[in-house]
Design a protein that fits this description.
The structure holds two protein chains of two kinds.
Chain A: H1 3-21, H2 24-39, H3 48-56, H4 70-73, E1 81-82, E2 88-89, H5 104-119, H6 125-136
Antiparallel strand pairs in A: 1-2
Helix pairs in contact in A: 2-6, 3-6
Chain B: H1 5-28, H2 39-45, H3 59-67, H4 81-93, H5 101-104, H6 124-129, H7 135-139
Helix pairs in contact in B: 3-4
Classes of the chains: A mainly alpha, B mainly alpha.
Chain lengths: 138, 164
């Protein structure tokens, strides 16, 4: 083989491998999808619209000063939010914060804290997948 | 143009020296507390509020705080055991009565030895420094909380808490 052929072969293999394995975000979504399917065999995919509802609804079942995800993340996912101590939070929409949702442990840690904060319980895998779909679609 | 090169060099030297002296004076001043430089500590303790300088509380305070993270001022800030151990070590090593003594000593006035206060904003010295701040200033919408130091101290994240 010529060096060019090697290079092409390598690039093809690399391309294939990366689609097959997927990035960390895809792996995380796949994990939530498998769990959602296990919980409900009728599960047919995540919905950004349901994710938006989860994000905007005033749940009022967690802490009094944080009835909704928007209490900290703001009404517009494309702009910054702020915590109760008024520290700014970078926007949640993936298009403006391209570094987000790559670190599964970070995502899980904050779902656990924030769902408890807002809903007074953990989020289901369906809710997590829907919410991520909403943030990744804008 | 005919500016003698020597005077330019001399001028630059003077500027450089002044800057160095000023920086030193600032860094050694009463208002300087070395900022958190440890990445895990910035990540875990700097997302809900600024990462407070470890020299602002004594070691016993950090030790107690780090084992009560599941109820941290009403929030759940708990960490996995490895991260918690790492962060605890960093905070304790640089505490106001340990590695950060040189900077933290002034804030420890009136804090009994061995005490473990949990709020910087309740240290006697902190309260005294802020007794001229009016109620309306605390309630300003961009302040919101006494713990929001950067709202008033714009260089707080670099360790400077001067009155500005």
């Amino acid at each position: 083989m010529t060096p060019t052929r090697y290079a092409i072969g390598f690039l093809c293999a690399f391309g294939l491998a990366s689609t097959a394995i997927g990035g960390p975000r895809e792996t995380l979504i796949d994990r939530y999808a498998a769990a959602a399917k296990a919980a409900d065999p009728g599960f047919s995919g995540f919905s950004a619209a349901r994710g938006e509802t989860l994000h905007r609804t005033q749940h009022n079942t967690g802490k009094a000063d944080t009835p909704a995800c928007t209490s900290c993340h703001g009404n517009d996912a494309l702009s910054a939010g702020r915590t109760r101590t008024r520290k700014p939070i970078e926007p949640m929409a993936l298009s403006v914060s391209p570094e987000r949702y790559k670190d599964a442990a970070k995502v899980e840690k904050w779902f656990k804290r924030n769902c408890d904060e807002v809903l007074g319980r953990e989020c289901t895998s369906l809710e997590k997948g829907d919410w991520l779909a909403y943030m990744m679609n804008q | 143009m005919n500016i003698p090169i020597r005077s330019v060099v001399a001028g630059l030297l003077v500027i450089g020296l002044t800057a160095a002296v000023l920086t030193k004076a600032r860094a050694g001043g009463d208002d300087y507390f070395p900022p958190v430089k440890d990445k895990p500590t910035v990540d875990e303790c700097g997302s809900c509020h600024m990462a407070f300088p470890p020299a602002m509380l004594p070691a016993a305070s950090w030790q107690r705080m780090m084992v009560e993270l599941d109820d941290h001022f009403g929030d759940n800030a708990s960490l996995d055991p490895q991260t918690a151990a790492h962060v605890t070590r960093y905070l304790v090593d640089n505490a106001a009565d340990a590695g950060g003594r040189r900077y933290g000593r002034k804030l420890m006035k009136g804090v009994p030895a061995g005490a473990s206060p949990q709020r910087i904003t309740e240290l006697p010295k902190w309260v005294r420094e802020h007794d001229e701040v009016s109620r309306s200033e605390w309630q300003h919408k961009d302040v919101g909380s006494k713990a929001n130091c950067p709202a008033c101290h714009v260089d707080a994240n670099d360790g400077y808490f001067e009155d500005d």
